[in-house]
Design a protein that fits this description.
The chain is globular, with a radius of gyration of 16 Å. Helix 2 runs antiparallel to helix 3. The chain has a single domain, classed as Alpha-Beta Complex (tt1808, chain A), CATH 3.90.1570. It is built from five helices and ten strands. Strands 1, 2, 5, 6, 7, 8, 9 and 10 form an eight-stranded mixed β-sheet that branches. A two-stranded antiparallel ribbon has the order 3-4. The chain is an alpha+beta fold. Helix content is about 40%, strand content about 25%.
Length: about 210
């Protein structure tokens, strides 16, 4: 069954026997946003139609923000766009974005572990989280490491919500972030990337 078939968190929690919780676990690590990015985003938001479809949201609002943070970690991670993720017949599809380990074989190899799954939705956050959580479960199973934390983000371009899956517990961050407050949004995303980096370093050292 495709990830998009899951329409709510409750459906995923029930099917996979995941515990649902809410907590404010996102820290904020300051990120230096370039003037060029600020000016470009302001132009795009002021002059373009940025949210008329999920693809538009991805291209105009989500990917540019993720890319800015990812560029600092490009030696360790690859940011994949709409790449096929298949665990089994019940968990397969094309997440909007996946942050994964950079393969030693080169950038053409889609390598695990998968640390972060991102979904774009036009204000359908409950549906978005159903899909994103299913993707996070697939990533967890493919990673073959229940102790590793898999992060998730659902965004409509303006509002960004964060979640994490640890073992059989999914936590959704109570506070959401907005592209209208760039410093706080970048600080939250930077925190997630730093957590992913820590986990990758631990796996390399093990």
């Amino acid at each position: 069954m495709a990830f998009s078939s899951y329409k709510s968190i409750g459906a995923v929690v029930q099917e996979f026997q995941i515990t649902y919780t809410e907590a404010n676990f996102i820290g904020e690590i300051e990120f230096n946003i370039s003037d060029y990015f600020r000016e470009d985003l302001q132009t795009v938001m002021g002059e373009e139609v940025v949210d008329n479809s999920e693809f538009a949201i991805c291209e105009n609002l989500i990917y540019p923000v993720l890319k800015e943070v990812w560029k600092c970690d490009r030696s360790k991670f690859l940011l994949w766009s709409h790449e096929s993720l298949t665990c089994d017949e019940n968990l397969s599809g094309f997440p909007a974005y996946i942050l994964a380990k950079r393969s030693p074989l080169g950038k053409v190899v889609f390598d695990k572990p998968y640390f972060l799954l991102i979904e774009a939705k036009q204000d359908k956050f409950e549906e978005g989280w159903g899909q994103c959580l299913a993707e996070m479960i697939a990533a967890q199973q493919l990673n073959e490491d229940l102790q590793m934390t898999v992060f998730g983000i659902v965004s409509n371009g303006d509002r960004w919500q964060f979640g994490k899956l640890e073992a059989n517990t999914f936590a959704r961050n109570i506070i959401f972030y907005s592209i209208q407050e760039l410093e706080k949004l970048f600080s939250a995303i930077n925190y997630v990337f730093r957590q992913c980096e820590l986990q990758l370093d631990e796996k390399v050292a093990a």
